[in-house]
Amino acid sequence: MINxxxxxxxxRIQKRRDAGTVVKRFPGVAEIVINMTYNQKGIRPIIRTxxxxxxxxxxxxxxxxxxxxxxxxFDLTRVITTMIRNRSVVEKGALNCEGNDPSGxxxxxxxxxxxxxxx
Length: 119
Known about the structure:
This protein has 3 helices and 6 strands, in the order ααββββαββ. It is of the alpha+beta class. It has one domain. The model has no long low-confidence stretch (mean pLDDT 88).
């Protein structure tokens, strides 16, 4: 199980590098902010904020916080790329974890993405 987690972590690091930076993929974007509330059965909601500057990796997959969930997470790539294509400023929504949690305690997020464009 530990080797699987390490492999997943190394793969995620490589995917982050392969994604390139925000400035290279989306040259007109000054900042992306993801505010989210993480919900999982049995624990209090957790509020998290992710800030992406032009030099940040353009990798918008947020890991699931469940200890039992190995391959899960919340991929906001489609949301963000659609927003940029449409020059949207704010988008709200919800996502379920994409992984399989053997304990049955699946998780979800409620998110708000805000994008600031360069002038």
